[in-house]
Q: What sequence folds into this?
C-alpha cells in the first residue's frame, strides 16, 4: 500500500471501496430475490432453500453456498401482513357491501382466507428476504 500523498485522493477512495466491497459484491439482487421467491438457493437457483415449511437449509445441496448465517427476522411477516391485510380489507369492504352475508359467515370466511393467504405467502416472502440479504451481504462484507 503506497502512502496517501503519492496516490492522490481518487486512488485512495478507489482502494477504500475495493477493500470494503471485494469482487464478490457483484451479486445480482433481483436474480437472488427471484430465486428466493421460488424457494431456490439465491446463489445457484437449483438447490432447495427450505428444508421444512419455513426452516431454511444451512448449506445449499447443489452449490454448497453457506446460508446458515442469514436471518430474515420479522421482514417476511411484515411483508406478508402488509399484502394480506390490504387484500382482505379490500374484500371485506367490497364483498360485504353488496353480498349481504350474515355476520357469522363473514366472521368465518375472512379470517380463514387471511390465515390461508398468510400461510401461503410466508415462505415466498421469506425466500424473497433471504435472497435480498444474501445478495446484499456481499456488498457489505
Ligand atoms: Zn445453491
A:
Amino acid at each position: 500500500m503506497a502512502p496517501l500523498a503519492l496516490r492522490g485522493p481518487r486512488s485512495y477512495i478507489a482502494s477504500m471501496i475495493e477493500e470494503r466491497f471485494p469482487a464478490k459484491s457483484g451479486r445480482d439482487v433481483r436474480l437472488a430475490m427471484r430465486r428466493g421467491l421460488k424457494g431456490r438457493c439465491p446463489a445457484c437457483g437449483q438447490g432447495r432453500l427450505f428444508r421444512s415449511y419455513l426452516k431454511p437449509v444451512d448449506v445449499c445441496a447443489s452449490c454448497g453456498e453457506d446460508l446458515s448465517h442469514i436471518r430474515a427476522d420479522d421482514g417476511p411477516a411484515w411483508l406478508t401482513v402488509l399484502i394480506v391485510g390490504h387484500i382482505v380489507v379490500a374484500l371485506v369492504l367490497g364483498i360485504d357491501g353488496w353480498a349481504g352475508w350474515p355476520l357469522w359467515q363473514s366472521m368465518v370466511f375472512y379470517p380463514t382466507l387471511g390465515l390461508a393467504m398468510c400461510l401461503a405467502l410466508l415462505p415466498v416472502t421469506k425466500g424473497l428476504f433471504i435472497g435480498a440479504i444474501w445478495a446484499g451481504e456481499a456488498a457489505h462484507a
